[in-house]
Design a protein that fits this description.
Number of strands: 34
Radius of gyration: 23 Å
Helix content: under 10%
Number of helices: 2
Strand content: over 45%
Length: 467
């Protein structure tokens, strides 16, 4: 984002609050004048201010990382392994791509997608995918390209022996971002030096190993907050089971704490087979929950399939600690999870699948926000790609998916789900998605992965300003 456009966006946000204050003050003055002098209040003149169209931006996760260089040296710096493939979409005329720089801790070479402003502010969207096989780093991953923000919840990760979890902090703005990491595990809040005041320079990425803050913990959740520049945060987890590579994945940010969460697209594939062998305690599928408040939550997990099947699991999540709810004996398939809770929670689902070479791969599936009526996206290449829609509303929905001249319609019943095959590497325009939640899954011989479909970026609207 250019400095001028960033300034416009920040002015509009601050101007909204200012305008409200001005309106209240003007109303009070007018009322006082009317009481003292006339029965007819004087209406102050107003002016409509229309925000200048701005460029749209999203940041993709980048490539797979390992904590060393190609020669196995410098274990304090992350280096890339291979490169991710990105698919993008826009309502504008074009999508410009640029790569954010690395810091002293290395970087995944994340790509910034920018749709230049036209007569209006455009939308931009995208996703990335990568299959890697290099030494101990073997598996497949995919992730959404996300809006810069000042808050992100990453539900996933582990720091047990053989597990490496890295948090990537990408700053696409032109000012420093000062980042705080609130790290939680099964024992509660992690108190460790270095979690606060992490400075990420403009247009760069910083890589933070989670093991620097917490050791030998099987279940983690990270809340990322920033001041100054806005951040896009992802998490990469890789596994080595004794001496055998156990897969890797990229965790996309999930929905903010809420009493209702939807993880719209999850793959469960030969999960019992994946748990055979040594060091496979974390190969069992789980729903990971965290309650950021002070009261325990009674949680109901609604688990559904596209053919109308489903089941319910009840659980309790204590406040301030990470809770993993095991998922036992589910047949192979694509699932949606609806989490209803008495207290706000964040949620994600982990699954593990065997691969054709006798190893395993893990997939992390994030919760998603409801969509607007019109949504764009593009799927990066992958095996057996599916898009899943979940309808938590009270009315049936008909979704139209357009790719060029091709169209398909999908009916999603109230409180139901639907799974469809859509093309990869093409712009997809979806209408009729108001209130629905959607995600993408891949499942092939090289592993499993998935990511949530992001809603359209909120645009600034005209504002009535009163003197």
């Amino acid at each position: 984002m250019s400095t001028d456009h960033a300034a416009v966006r920040r002015w509009v946000l601050r101007g909204t609050a200012t305008a409200v204050a001005v309106v209240v003050a003007a109303g009070a003055v007018t009322a006082a004048h009317a009481i003292g002098t006339s029965a007819e209040p004087v209406r102050p003149a107003g002016r409509t201010v229309t925000p200048v169209p701005a460029a749209a931006e999203r940041v993709c996760a980048g490539s797979a990382l390992r904590l060393s260089d190609d020669a196995g040296n410098d274990a304090t710096r992350a280096s890339t392994v291979g490169s991710a493939t990105i698919a993008s979409a826009t309502t504008g005329s074009t999508v410009d791509r640029s790569t954010l720089g690395s810091s002293t801790t290395g970087g995944s070479e994340p790509e910034l997608l920018t749709a230049p402003a036209g007569d209006t502010t455009p939308q931009v969207a995208g996703s990335s995918s990568q299959t890697v096989s290099s030494g101990d780093l073997v598996g497949t991953a995919s992730a959404s390209c996300d809006d810069p923000s000042q808050s992100a919840w990453l539900v996933g990760g582990s720091t047990e022996t053989g597990r490496t979890t890295l948090v990537t902090l990408s700053n696409p703005t032109d000012v420093n971002a000062t980042v705080d990491l609130a790290v939680y595990d099964a024992n509660g809040t992690v108190s460790a030096p270095g979690t606060n005041g992490i400075v990420v320079a403009p247009n760069t990425q910083k890589v933070v190993p989670l093991s620097g803050f917490v050791a030998d913990q099987a279940s983690t959740v990270v809340h990322v907050t920033s001041t100054g520049g806005q951040i896009v945060a992802h998490m990469q987890e890789s596994i080595v089971r004794t001496l055998t590579p156990g897969g890797y994945d990229v965790v996309s940010g999930g929905a903010a704490p809420s009493t209702k969460q939807v993880v719209p697209a999850v793959v469960l594939e030969k999960t019992q087979e994946a748990q055979r062998g040594d060091d496979t305690a974390d190969a069992a599928p789980v729903v990971r929950l965290f309650v950021p408040g002070s009261r325990a939550a009674r949680v109901t997990l609604g688990i559904s399939t596209a053919d109308g099947g489903g089941s319910m699991v009840n659980a309790t999540a204590e406040p301030g600690v990470v809770t993993d709810v095991a998922l036992d004996d589910f047949p192979d398939g694509r699932y949606a999870f609806t989490i209803s809770s008495t207290e706000p929670v964040v949620a994600g689902v982990r699954s593990t699948s065997p691969t054709e070479d006798g190893r395993t791969d893990l997939g992390w599936f994030a919760s998603a926000e409801p969509l607007t009526d019109s949504t764009i996206t593009a799927l990066a290449p992958g095996s057996a790609q599916r898009m899943t829609f979940v309808n938590p509303t009270r009315s049936d929905a008909t979704v139209t998916i357009r790719s060029g001249d091709d169209r398909q319609r999908v009916t999603v019943a109230s409180d139901g789900m639907a799974t469809v095959t859509v093309p990869v590497s093409k712009q997809l325009v979806m209408t009729g998605t108001e209130g629905l939640v959607a995600g993408v899954t891949y499942a092939g011989s090289d592993g499993i992965s998935g990511f949530p479909i992001r809603p359209a970026t909120e645009e600034s609207t005209p504002l009535r300003v009163f003197p």
